[in-house]
Design brief:
- The chain has 378 residues and is mainly β.
- It has helices spanning 3-22, 135-140, 148-152, 276-283; strands at residues 26-34, 45-48, 53-56, 62-68, 71-78, 85-91, 97-103, 119-123, 158-159, 168-169, 177-181, 184-185, 190-191, 199-200, 207-213, 227-233, 241-247, 251-260, 265-274, 289-305, 308-323, 328-349, 352-371, 375-377.
- The strands form six sheets. Strands 17-18-19-20-21-22-23-24 form an eight-stranded antiparallel β-sheet. A five-stranded mixed β-sheet has the order 8-15-16-11-12, with no helix packed on it.
Length: 378
């Protein structure tokens, strides 16, 4: 073979080997373990960052990259519940590389979770709440006596009898529901209790807002179990006088409100008289039953300073039921509920407020009857 041919063969061999040497790649394998316990970590994401190679560790924690070019690379391993781990990966020619990656367990930080009780609002103005009933809806809903308790019966989680207006929340009786008006607890908030409380003792027209909290309320609300039914009286205008008269098939109502002291003071008075006794007598369906009820609410408030508000309020309700038939000569029952209270609301700074209240109340009941075989009881 001539010298020229030998050089030709050598050049051809070099041209064939050089590309093969340039494409030399290694097989990289490894196992991902949890630091401290030595358990294999499955489904960890293993990535060679500069080469955009990715894979997942198996159930036994092992992973494999079949073809990794020579050089120095960055290996990144990530898994939920573990701190991300990075290490340097050195690949030399076609030498297989075996790795052990230890990951440090860390607590998973979740976004803030805020747990709040069920909350429903009935407001004069539009508010953000889970369920809102406007004043117009309350006043136009068909219901007996324009009673605010009956409007609340339509809210989720609230149940009540067709006749009675007592509210049952979360399966409990009304005895476990706190009923307040302007922060004062009402111990007997129903009219005609001999019929299991047909109406509430507060006229809906004198109410400005209602908050119904169905659980999760603070200790300041007392020892009730199911909810808080908080009524806030209407805010009178700061000037002028407004008087309204109302007449329905069950009652007649009167309300007057206004302001004084150049806008620093307001007053409101509301009265309602039910005439179920008159309506039943006119229709001839009374069967000897004569139910009567009335209530009156009044308040006056004065704000000498923008951070101090003084108020005085009164609420009185009365109802009476008389019954007579062939065997019972007469039965007469009556309830009276009277409340009076004064309050001082103060704002000392943006983080400190106080409400001071002094109140007095009285709830009375009388019951008398005479029958042929029953004798007289009182």
């Amino acid at each position: 073979m001539s010298a020229r041919n030998r050089w030709t063969i050598a050049v051809v061999v070099l041209l064939v080997l050089v590309p093969q040497l340039g494409n030399a790649q290694a097989r990289v394998t490894g196992v991902v373990r949890g630091n401290g316990n030595g358990d294999n970590v499955a489904n960890a994401q293993v990535q060679i960052v500069d080469r955009r190679l990715r894979t997942l560790s198996g159930d036994d924690g092992r992973f494999v990259f079949e073809s990794v070019p020579p050089g120095t690379h960055t290996l990144r391993v990530a898994r939920i519940g573990y701190a991300p781990t990075e290490l340097e990966l050195a690949v030399n020619d076609t030498t297989a590389v075996e790795l052990i990656v230890d990951m440090e367990p860390v607590a998973l930080r979740l976004s803030e979770i805020v747990v709040t009780p069920g909350h429903f609002g009935v407001m004069e103005t539009e508010v953000v709440a889970e369920r809102t009933i406007t004043r117009d809806e309350i006043e136009t809903l068909p219901q007996l006596g324009e009673d605010v308790f009956r409007a609340i019966k339509r809210l989720p989680g609230v149940a009540a009898h067709d006749i009675s207006t007592k509210l049952n929340l979360r399966g409990a009786t009304d005895q476990e529901l706190l009923v307040t008006i302007d922060g004062l607890e009402l111990y007997e908030p129903y009219h005609l209790k001999d019929f299991d409380g047909v109406l509430g003792i507060v006229d809906v027209h004198s109410i400005g807002s209602i908050d119904l909290v169905t659980g999760g309320f603070g200790v300041e609300h007392g020892d009730k179990l199911t909810g808080v039914f908080d009524m806030t009286s209407r805010t009178p205008p700061i000037s002028g006088t407004r008087t309204t008269l109302g007449l329905s098939i069950t009652n007649a109502s009167f309300m007057s409100q206004g302001g004084f002291g150049t806008g620093r003071g307001q007053w409101l008075v509301s009265a309602r008289r039910g005439y179920l006794d008159i309506a039943m007598a006119l229709t001839g369906g009374n069967d000897g039953i004569s139910p009567q009820y009335w209530d009156v609410f009044g308040k006056v408030q004065y704000q000498p300073h923008r951070k101090h508000l003084f108020s005085a309020s009164v609420l009185h309700a009365s109802d009476n039921l008389s019954l007579s038939d062939e065997t019972l000569q007469f039965l007469d029952t009556g309830w009276k509920s009277s409340y009076s209270w004064v309050a001082w609301d103060a704002e000392f700074n943006s983080r400190a407020t106080a409400r001071t209240m002094a109140w007095a109340g009285r709830v009375t009941r009388h019951r008398a009857g005479l029958g042929e075989d029953l004798g007289r009881v009182s």
